[in-house]
Amino acid sequence: MPESLMSHGFNGHSTPFVELDRAAWAALGPTMPLPLRETEIVQLRGIGEPLELSEVTDVYLPLSRLLNLYAAGASQLHRATSDFLGERAKRTPFVIGVAGSVAVGKSTIARLLRELLARWEDTPRVELVTTDGFLFPNAELERRGLMERKGFPESYDRRALLRFVSAVKSGAEEVRAPFYSHLSYDIVPDAQIVVRQPDILIVEGLNVLQPPAKGHGLSVSDLFDFTVYVDARTSDIARWYEERFLKLQRGAFSNPNSYFHRYASLDEEQARTRAREIWASINEPNLLQNVRPTRSRATLVLRKDSNHAVSTVLLRKV
Fold first, then answer.
1. Residue 36, SS3 per DSSP
2. So what's the pLDDT on residue 4?
3. 86-116 burial, b for 16+ CB within 10 Å, e for fewer?
4. CATH superfamily, domain at 16-311
5. Are strands 126-130 and 200-204 parallel, antiparallel or unpaired?
6. Partners of residue 181 on adjacent β-strands
7. Between β-strands 175-181 and 310-316, what pairing exists: parallel, antiparallel or unpaired?
8. Cβ of 53: how many Cβ atoms within 10 Å?
9. Chain centroid to CA 19: how far?
10. CA angle 89-98-47, nearest 5°?
């Protein structure tokens, strides 16, 4: 790797990352055909996220190839270790964590990676689970006084999430996760997501890179084979959140069954004011106190510009 690509850090200090601008990153995958049609890319877009064909080709196709290489390497190491131990252990899933702020686009990236990775020959079975399903139900959050801290680390059943990923990682034939509804803004009783021995499991969420909680020796991030952090300036994310809130207010919030239906009748200025209040009281503190401090723990960081496009990729040196 050329010396010019080496990073001098998030704040001007030396880091264990190699930094590549978008052009240098895109050049790493010039011969790979794009396996997705433009109509499929449109369907994968999140609300307010202008995911373009060029972005997929330049950024996410090379990333899917890198992840495929990492997964293949982990599989080879697993076989070699099993041979060394004289065992016939089954191949275990390669687990990828995707972290970042609310409204930064991590859910779209996770969905896109699921589709791209499933097109590679040796990883056809790719599952995606979000940590929303491991939030405590609203009734429990109310009991604990945590409704205004929903999305903060303490609002998740971290032990249940750890048990889930541990079971998948150990090769269990079938593992179930709770189902979260964004319409009701709550866990749906008796509804589950079933994961059956995937080649790759993607776990997406705000706080998936958190270190172990006090008094615990293991965190879910310890079970990841590769981690991605989606990064952007706080001011840009705040603006994206506000614009997304407005789009939801005109759309999903109009459903009488929506938890946020009470916002549907707000005029635009009232909606913007409410979005800024929610951002300032919940999402920004969570980002600054809990989410962004985990950035340096990632294997790879995707830095976005104000237009939502990735401008820089930082990859941890092997």
1. coil
2. 35
3. eeeeeebbbbbbbbbbbbbbbbbbbbbbbbb
4. P-loop containing nucleotide triphosphate hydrolases (3.40.50.300)
5. parallel
6. 186
7. unpaired
8. 13
9. 21
10. 135
What burial letters (b/e) apply to 297-310, b meaning 16+ CB within 10 Å? bbbbbbbbeeebeb
Q: Is the pLDDT of residue 202 over 60?
A: yes
CA distance 11 to 30: 31
Distance of CA 184 to the CA centre of its chain: 22
The torsion of the CA quartet 75, 76, 78, 84, rounded to 10 degrees, works out to 170
Name the residue type at position 35: P
Helix 268-278 / helix 234-250 crossing angle, nearest 10 deg:
130
Strand duo 310-316 + 300-304: pairing: antiparallel
Predicted confidence band of residue 1 (pLDDT cuts 50, 70, 90): very low
Phi, psi for residue 113 in degrees, rounded to 5: -65, -35
**What does the alpha-carbon distance between residue 176 and residue 208 come to, in Å, rounded to a whole number?**
18
User: DSSP characters for 95-141?
Assistant: EEEEEE-TTSSHHHHHHHHHHHHTTSTT---EEEEEGGGGBPPHHHH
Alpha helices in 206-300 (DSSP H): 234-250, 268-278, 284-286
- Torsion, Cα 256 257 260 261, to 10 degrees, reads 10
Supply the pTM of this predicted model: 0.91
Q: What would the mean pLDDT of 48-77 be, rounded to a whole number?
A: 88
**Which of 254, 229, 248 has the alpha carbon at shortest distance from 110?**
229
120-135 pLDDT, tens digit per residue, is 888 889 999 999 999 9
Other beta carbons within 10 Å of 234: 13
